[in-house]
User: What shape does this take?
Amino acid sequence: MIRIISGRYGPKLLGPGTVLNLDPSKEEILVNKKIAEYVDELGEADTDDGKEAPFKTFEELKRMRTKKELIEYAQSIGLHTLEEEDKKEVLIDAIANYTEEHLTGGGNGV
Assistant: This one.
């Protein structure tokens, strides 16, 4: 089973949060393209290594076009302190720092 995490999929353009049970090869393609993530029967992220779904890279953050998009992504990963008044570069740096803290275990669980 997979859950859509980015974009739209299928003839009905199913969006993020939709859980699908597809042919394993189709599921693998969507996961590899980072459109979906594997989930268990309860719809919770199914990770073999105990790690959470990967964060966006610094380059992916720089490609995000609007401050609103950056703030929405930040909120989706648990970072709720950003303001739209901040410069785009400040938002990107804050998200990258937050990501680094949580990938290395240095975060305080906020």
